[in-house]
Structures are given as structure tokens and as C-alpha cells.
Specification:
The chain has eleven helices and 21 strands. The chain is an alpha/beta fold and 448 residues long. It folds into three domains: 200 residues, FAD/NAD(P)-binding domain, CATH 3.50.50.60; 111 residues, 3-Layer(bba) Sandwich (FAD/NAD(P)-binding domain), CATH 3.50.50.60; 99 residues, Enolase-like, domain 1 (2-Layer Sandwich), CATH 3.30.390.30. The strands form five sheets. Strands 1, 2, 3, 4, 5, 6 and 16 form a seven-stranded mixed sheet that branches. A hairpin with a 2-residue loop joins strand 4 and strand 5. The longest helix is centred in the first third of the chain and has 25 residues. The chain starts with 5 loop residues before the first strand and ends in a 17-residue tail after the last helix.
Length: 448
């Protein structure tokens, strides 16, 4: 590979790009990675990590409210948005530093500027310099999608929401996917008036319908307002800094912030992939084969930019498989079956495998076991919210096809249970396991 400046040049230092870089370097490759912002990608910088910290912070409102029945009293408790915000941003900086050290310790060169594909083996940097590589890996991730409407420039996305100067008293959130509902829960718990606006009447498309309905009921009871079948028409800024949000068929809403969370798109604009003969799909994603290779033999892509499964752990596995395949002599692919996922709404929900609807369409003959219960903590705190667990099984074998749950700590419980689903265990295997009492997790082996 002496004919090239690098064995591998990675565009994008998110989770997938960092994993691919360090593993390729560990296999002996000379590696460089270009990143125009911070190292760590969406998850670490402006996604799941800082958002989860905001979830933790906002949940104390519920915990303080429930504490009275547990014998605790708090006088003059108050919340400081700036303090939480700054702690979160400081932790982002800490993680960015750890990612940088990881690359440095593996001998990966960091180039902190934008890069684009010039040809099959050439990358052009923002400063005009061109470098060559035997292989190029594109791992630039996704970017928030904002529909076109008048006044869209007044709205913020999940990129900017972590940097708000102050907590809005009224916030309108466009969209009803996981990003929208996670932030709806955060702001609602912190005392904001939250209105969720969606073009359709479906929230969390792709998740089990029973869990979606339960989340809708609970969040409405907590004060979140929903406006369905209401596309945005325009957003106008008032002289006092507030906004008038005009919706189709509705009276205007007044908000202090408007958050657009209508999905994410692969960040492929201006990457120059056409210079290597690579055509994007209709959604702007990079088509790849099972080994993450594009139509150009020397260019690969991993993570959200391929629009396979937009989850950080999946991008990491794709980056690992790429490096092992190309530089480690171990052809590796990623198994996309039974990938667990969660929504850190309040309460959270999580699932793995097929939903009830998917299982019926695929297998026809199935049986659904469930447990609809009020968690002990909620009973004692006099909170009426109920958890719901569902086990979707094939008949007559009893093989577990899917597991879905909503309730406190659902994501923490699901991770271990997902191993059983991935392993192809049956309802009989669950039944044969002694319950861990008293716990919410014991409902997994008690469902009827």
C-alpha cells in the first residue's frame, strides 16, 4: 500500500468511525480520520448520551413528588436548568477527550476538518489538501430533517436543544418519534407545557401498538398535549421573543421554543460520492452490501449514513466487522435480527424481536402472553400508572419471537431478556426460570 498516503481514511469520527479506525490500526493499518466537529459523533455529542443525562435530571421531579409516602420531605426544592445543562455539556467534553485519547493511543491520525470524496482513492480536505488511501470509509452519520415551511429558521432541532439559555415555559414539538417523545417527557417533567404536533395520528411508528397506546395514555395524564393530523403551516416570531405556531386546521399555538424532531437523514450532502460513481438511494443513504462495501470497491460505509438500523451499537458492530474483514483477514458481517431498542420516554419502553402485528403477518399462528401490572413503587407512591409486558410466541413451538415492555427501568430489564430472545428460547424456558421477587422483572417469567 506504499502507493497511498494511508491504508484507511475514515470520514467521520462517530461511534462507527472510531471503532473502525482503532481496530484497523490494531490490525497494522496506517489510519487517519477526518472530523469537522468533535470526536464521538451524534450519540456522544448531541444524542443519546446527553439526552439520557437530561432524562435522569428531569426524573428527579417525579422522585421528589413520590418521596413523601416514603417518609421524605423537601422544602423549597427548586430546579436550575443552567446548572444541569452545563454539567451535561461538561460531560460531553469529557467523553470527547476520551475518544480522542482512544484514537491517539492506537496511532490514528486525527484531522479536524471536513473531508469529501474526490475519487475512488482520494479525499479532499477543507483546506484544499488532497490525500490518498487504499480504502475510504464513510461514517458521517445522520442529521436532523426539518420540513420546509415558513419560519422554519425560528425552530431548533435536537442539535441545539442542549444549549438553551433558559427553560421554556411553553414548547411545541413537531414529530412523534423517539426523539420527539423523549424530549417531550424531559420538558414535561421539568414543568414546561408541552404540545406534541404530528402529521399523522401514530406515535413511535415501528413499536408494538399496545405499548404505544399505553405511553400515549400515561403522557396525556401527565399533561402532555397532542395535536394529530396537524402539519405545520408557518412559525412567526413575536416582538416579545415568543412564537406563533400555525397548524393546518387549528388555532395558532403560542410557544417559547419550537423543537422540530421529525426524523433524521443520512448526512451525505456535499460528500462527493458521485466522484467515485456511488449513487445514493431516494433517502440520501449510501447503499452497501453485507460487508458494508459500496458500489466502489475501495469505499465502504457504516452507521446511520447507510440507513440500515440507526442505533449506536449497530454502527459500532459495523465498524468492527469492516475492520476485521478488510484488515484483519476475518470476513465478518452483522446480524440485524433481534436488535433491542428503547425509547427513554417517561415511562420508558423497550422491545426486541417482532411486534405482535409483525409476528401475525409473518407467522400467522402466534400466542401473546402479557402482564398488565402496577409497579410496587407506584402503588406505594399512590401513582396510578401501570406497566405492560408482552411476550410474542410462535405456536405450537412456543419460541419467543418478540418481547416488549413499558414501565420503570424497562430498558435495563430488556437488555438481559434480549439475550434469551436472541438465543431462540421458548415460553417454557421462561416459565422454568424461578421468579426474582419482589421485582418488576419477575413478570417476565409469570406472564399468562
Amino acid at each position: 500500500m506504499a502507493d497511498y498516503d494511508y491504508d484507511l481514511f475514515v470520514i467521520g469520527a462517530g461511534s462507527g468511525g472510531v471503532r473502525a479506525s482503532r481496530v484497523a490500526a490494531a490490525h497494522g493499518a496506517k489510519v487517519a480520520v477526518a472530523e469537522e466537529h468533535k470526536v464521538g459523533g451524534t450519540c456522544v455529542i448531541r444524542g443519546c448520551v446527553p439526552k439520557k443525562l437530561l432524562v435522569y435530571g428531569s426524573h428527579f421531579a417525579e422522585d421528589l413528588e413520590d418521596a413523601a409516602n416514603y417518609g421524605w420531605s423537601f422544602e423549597n426544592a427548586k430546579f436550575d436548568w443552567a446548572r444541569l445543562r452545563d454539567h451535561v455539556l461538561n460531560d460531553v467534553d469529557r467523553l470527547n477527550g476520551l475518544y480522542e485519547k482512544t484514537l491517539e493511543s492506537h496511532g490514528v491520525e486525527r484531522i479536524m476538518q471536513r473531508a469529501m470524496v474526490k475519487s475512488a482513492h482520494t479525499v479532499e480536505l477543507a483546506d484544499g489538501r488532497e490525500v490518498t488511501a487504499k480504502y475510504i470509509l464513510v461514517a458521517v452519520g445522520g442529521w436532523p430533517f426539518v420540513p420546509q415551511f415558513e419560519g422554519a429558521e425560528h425552530c431548533i432541532t435536537s442539535n441545539e436543544v442542549f444549549h438553551l439559555d433558559k427553560l421554556p415555559k411553553r414548547i411545541v414539538i413537531a414529530g412523534a418519534g423517539y426523539i420527539a417523545l423523549e424530549f417531550a417527557g424531559i420538558f414535561n417533567a421539568l414543568g414546561c407545557h408541552v404540545t406534541v404536533v404530528n402529521r399523522s395520528n401514530v406515535i413511535l411508528r415501528g413499536y408494538d401498538e399496545s405499548l404505544r397506546d399505553r405511553l400515549l395514555q400515561i403522557t396525556m395524564s401527565r399533561g402532555i398535549e397532542y395535536k394529530f393530523h396537524c402539519p405545520f403551516q408557518k412559525v412567526q416570531k413575536r416582538e416579545d421573543g415568543a412564537f406563533d405556531v400555525h397548524l393546518e386546521g387549528q388555532d395558532p399555538l403560542v410557544a417559547d421554543q419550537v423543537l422540530v424532531a421529525t426524523g433524521r437523514r443520512p448526512k451525505t450532502d456535499g460528500l462527493g460520492l458521485e466522484n467515485a460513481g456511488i449513487e445514493l438511494d431516494d433517502g440520501g443513504a449510501i447503499p452497501v452490501d453485507e460487508y458494508s462495501k459500496t458500489s466502489c470497491d475501495s469505499i465502504y460505509a457504516v452507521g446511520d449514513v447507510t440507513d440500515r438500523i440507526q442505533l449506536t451499537p449497530v454502527a459500532i458492530r459495523e465498524g468492527q466487522a469492516f475492520a476485521d474483514t478488510v484488515f484483519g483477514g476475518k470476513p465478518s458481517t452483522v446480524d440485524y435480527a433481534c436488535v433491542p431498542s428503547a425509547v427513554f420516554s417517561q415511562p420508558p419502553l423497550a422491545g426486541v424481536g417482532l411486534t405482535e402485528g409483525e409476528a401475525r403477518n409473518t407467522y400467522g399462528n402466534i400466542r401473546v402472553y402479557s402482564s398488565d401490572f402496577r409497579p410496587m413503587k407506584n402503588v406505594f407512591a399512590d401513582r396510578q400508572e401501570r406497566g405492560l409486558y408482552k411476550l410474542i410466541c410462535e405456536e405450537p413451538t412456543g419460541k419467543v419471537l418478540g418481547l416488549h415492555m413499558i414501565g420503570p427501568d424497562a430498558p435495563e430489564i430488556l437488555q438481559a431478556a434480549a439475550i434469551a430472545v436472541k438465543a431462540g428460547l421458548t415460553k417454557a424456558d421462561f416459565d422454568a426460570t424461578v421468579a426474582l421477587h419482589p421485582s418488576m422483572a419477575e413478570e417476565l417469567v409469570l406472564m399468562r
